[in-house]
Design a protein that fits this description.
This protein has 170 residues and is of the alpha+beta class. It is built from 4 helices and 9 strands, in the order E-E-H-E-E-E-H-E-E-E-E-H-H. A hairpin with a 4-residue loop joins strand 7 (94-100) and strand 8.
Amino acid sequence: MIIVESYFLKPNTVVKSLSSEYFISLDQTEQLQKQLNLRQPVYPGYISLHDEHHQALGLEYHDSVDGLWLGILSILESLAEKGHGYAGFTYQSLILQMKISEEGMLMTEILFKDSVQQRAEFPGREAVRGLIAGAEIFFETVFSLPLQLFEFEKEEIRNRVHKLKELTAK
């Protein structure tokens, strides 16, 4: 089973070690509403994609969680068209790259320049559906908080997620 989770960095927090104590899970909406600045332009955090065997992204690759999700939407759209896609991180010189292998596996890589920093492989259809569901949960939660971050892009983002869901339903 593929699990996709999102986390926000607690306000006024400096990450001193790779510990989840510095972050608030997306499912803790009450905490998020109390602690996050609703007018902030970017929200630091991270995304975790994992199953019982593999981990992609994760705490060590914390960045702009909203930027990562927008990048993942673009990657998923590109995967549907071309079978591969990539997106840059906001604060780090890293690239998230995904492609579908000939065997139907979703290959994820985090690159620094031309060097692979992290590589993971997941069952393709299940992982793509998990990422789409994770994106939908992330954005709908963000819209409900209400963070002003995507105030004018709500419908566009919902339409992108809806189209991806339609494509993977086939």
